[in-house]
């Protein structure tokens, strides 16, 4: 569906978010979404093809924001290596959580807890897999430039990313209050970052 910026579409998206958060994708009702935003069924279907498309309109931008951040994150390090600049720790997924996830935390909570029956239902696994693949592209470049990277197998890298991603998103899943969520992120940062730096030779 084309992006619709009209006031009625804004109401539809807000109503859909409320409905999916309350009932989850599988039990959500398009009739109730229409009632929430004051539209008939015919009016509602001018904004989406079906329930899955409506969920996708909420979830896809959230995933796009994460992928854009991850691509930029990796590019910083690849460029530094290729230009033979001094390697330094520039940012981490903790920054991603602060800059990307928490400003839109309801959308990520929606994907993590309400997406059963959609293509997003394995979100954390898919995110872990993407992170592993992107990092695996980066490691050979580092090694070619003489970085002191520890040897690590794909299985080991997957295990580390699984633990890291799970820890980062637990506060989102359980809707920790903002102050508590930030404290948890700081704890995850203090625990994981020394290990990542050691692994990648920083």
Question: If you had to describe this structure to a student in words, what would you say it looks like?
Answer:
Helix 7 (123-144) packs across helix 8. It is elongated, with a radius of gyration of 20 Å. The termini are far apart. It is 74% helix and 0% strand. It folds into 2 domains: 1-48, Homeodomain-like (Arc Repressor Mutant, subunit A), CATH 1.10.10; 51-200. The chain has helices at residues 7-27, 30-37, 41-44, 51-82, 93-101, 105-114, 123-144, 154-173, 178-200. With 202 residues, the chain is mainly alpha-helical. The longest helix has 32 residues, at 51-82. It has 9 helices and no strands.
H/E series: HHHHHHHHH
Q: Span from first to last CA?
A: 45 Å
Roughly what is the average pLDDT, rounded to an integer? 88
Low-pLDDT segments:
none
Radius of gyration: 20 Å
Structural class comes to: mainly alpha
Report the major sheet: none
Report the total helices: 9
């Amino acid at each position: 569906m084309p992006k619709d910026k009209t006031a009625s579409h804004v109401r539809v998206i807000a109503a859909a978010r409320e409905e999916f958060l309350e009932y989850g994708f599988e039990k959500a009702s398009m009739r109730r979404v229409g009632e929430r935003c004051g539209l008939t069924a015919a009016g509602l279907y001018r904004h989406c093809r079906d329930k899955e498309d409506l969920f996708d309109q909420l979830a896809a931008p959230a995933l796009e924001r994460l992928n854009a951040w991850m691509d930029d994150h990796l590019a910083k390090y690849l460029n530094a290596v290729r230009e033979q600049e001094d390697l330094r720790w520039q940012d981490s997924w903790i920054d991603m959580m602060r800059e990307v996830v928490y400003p839109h935390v309801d959308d990520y909570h929606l994907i993590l807890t309400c997406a059963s029956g959609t293509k997003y239902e394995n979100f954390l696994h898919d995110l872990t897999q993407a992170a592993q693949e992107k990092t695996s592209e980066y490691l050979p470049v580092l090694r070619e430039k003489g970085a002191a990277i520890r040897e690590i197998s794909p299985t080991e890298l997957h295990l580390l990313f699984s633990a890291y991603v799970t820890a980062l998103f637990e506060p989102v899943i359980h809707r920790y209050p903002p102050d508590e969520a930030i404290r948890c992120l700081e704890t995850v940062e203090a625990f994981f970052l020394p290990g990542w730096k050691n692994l990648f030779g920083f």
